[in-house]
Amino acid sequence: MSRSTDVFLELKERTNKANAAGADILVSIHCNAGGGKGGFVTFRYTLASQGSIKLQEALHKAIMSKLGGTDRGQKAKDLHMVRESNMPAVLIGNLFVDVVADADRLKQAAVLDAIIEGHVQGISAYLGLTKTKADKPVIQERDIKVPSKLAETTWKEVTEKGFFDGTRPGAAVTREELGTVVGRLLKYFDQRG
Could you tell me whether strands 89-96 and 26-32 are parallel, antiparallel, or unpaired per DSSP bridges? Predict the structure, then answer.
C-alpha cells in the first residue's frame, strides 16, 4: 500500500515506493470523476508488458463480474502509475463520484464489498493463488490455566484475597462467575467496614 491514512502522495512517490519494495504487481485503485455516464474502467500502459495485459484482463473480468453496471472497457493510456512501475501495473477506475447513479452505488456496502472481492479474485487469478482449507483466520490459542505475563501479579493478589479460586485465569468469565466475584468483593468491603 502506498498509504494507509488520508494523506496525499505525489504519483512519483507512489511508483517509487512500489519499485523500491520490489512489488510483484502494482494495482492503482481509484474512483473516477468527469465521466459522463460513469461506469467501470481499467488502464494499462500503451506499451504494456504481457504481464500488465494479463493483469488487466484478470482484474477487469473479476471486478466486472462482481460489480456489474456500465463497462467502459480495458484501455491503454500513457498514465504515470502504469508507465513508471517496474512491475505489471493496472490503474482501475471504480465508478465515478460525480455521476449520481455511481455515487449512490458507492454509498452501498454491498457495492464496496463487490469491488473488494473483485480485486481479490482478479489478483488471485493473475498470481495463480487458490483458496485452501488452511485459509482460515489464525486464532492464537492460549493456555487458560496460566495467567498472562501482564496479569501474573494481579492474579496472584486477587486469588490470595479469595476473589477468585485460582483456577482458569485465562478463561472467559460467565455472568454467574462475575456475580460470584462481585459478591466476594462486597463481602470483603463489608468486613473492612
Answer: parallel
**pLDDT digits 0-9 by tens, 38-48:** 999 999 999 99
Q: What is the DSSP letter of 37?
A: T
Question: Percent helix, strand and coil across the chain, each rounded to 5?
Answer: 45, 15, 40
User: 87 near 18, Cβ under 8 Å?
Assistant: yes
pLDDT value of position 30: 92
Cell of 134: 488452511
Element spanning 12, H or E: helix 11-21
- Domains of the chain plus CATH, in order, are 11-127 (3.40.630.40), 149-192 (no CATH)
Q: What is this structure's pTM?
A: 0.67
The Cα-based distances of 24 to 87, 112, 137, 145 in angstroms read 6, 25, 24, 45
Query: Which stretches does DSSP call E strand in the chain?
Result: 26-32, 40-44, 71-76, 89-96
Q: Distance (Å, rounded) from C-alpha 147 to C-alpha 149?
A: 6
Residue 130 cell numbers, joined: 487458490
Those residues whose C-beta lies under 8 Å from the C-beta of residue 142, and which sit 6 or more positions away, are: 148, 170
**Integer-rounded Cα radius of gyration of the chain:** 27
